[in-house]
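Q: Hi! First time doing this. I have a protein sequence and I read that you can turn it into a structure. Is that right? Here it is:
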Amino acid sequence: MLGPVILAASRSDRMRRLISAAPVTKQVVDRFIPGESVADIVPIIEELTGRGLELTMDVVGEDITTPEQATAARDAYLALVERLKDLGLGERVEMSVKLSMFGQALPGGHELALANVRPVVEAAAAIGTTVTLDAEDHTTLDSMFAIHEELRRDFPQTGCVIQAYLFRTEADARRLAEAGSRVRLVKGAYKEPAEVAYQQKHEIDKAYVRILRTLMEGEGYPMVGSHDPRLISIAQELARCAGRKPDEYEFQMLYGIRSDEHLRLAAEGHRMRVYTAYGTDWYGYFMRRLAEKPANLRFFVRSMLSKG
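A: Yes, that's right. Below is the predicted 3D structure, encoded as structure tokens:
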């Protein structure tokens, strides 16, 4: 399987330099990351919301090595909130954050990440939107869930992400499927050991369905993070069986992947949110997109061969 190899490459400085230097890379990266600044991304936000879609915005960047970088990450999100306020789109556009970007891996990182993310959550609430805490590798999750619980005391709409490939996630889903919760379910995109995660696609898919059933039958707000047509159909059936109305759950897909499906679901009356990343530190995000789906890798290789 190429996925684990690509994920390993996402941690390699040598591969980062090689891929960043390839002439075709920017063209391909732009498919998934359509801008480097808030100014770049405003036309995308306006276009997608104008077509009936909602968004969750991610300022990419995870390799934080100093508290100053973590503060800069916080400020980048605060600048995004200000622009959304100016656009009057707070109710249509939320934000996704990785706590590693807010300093979680630094000394005293749990407290530092909480201190940095709280002003972003406060600012988001002030314009009528919210923040979802993205899941990262399994070693960070206890800290993420603790920060999520702390934030929800004052901002109960704060969401979090759970990953179907981890053994622990079924229990996490049962705990989180409570009234007022917002939970995004994804398959998972980090290289995890067999001791903590399913390794085979069919096992991950089965776990995804079990967990999604728990969320749909619970009292919270499920967010279905998948591009898989079969899982999307299953999600619709699970929602129907649970008696959920179209505005009581949503689908989420990545910018640049299955864009026609985004529009189809929205046209059918579903809530469809596009996960849209921007920023200069794109490498780790980009490599995980390649690892998640062979078609993404084929697209990149074809582009390199045709342009190189």
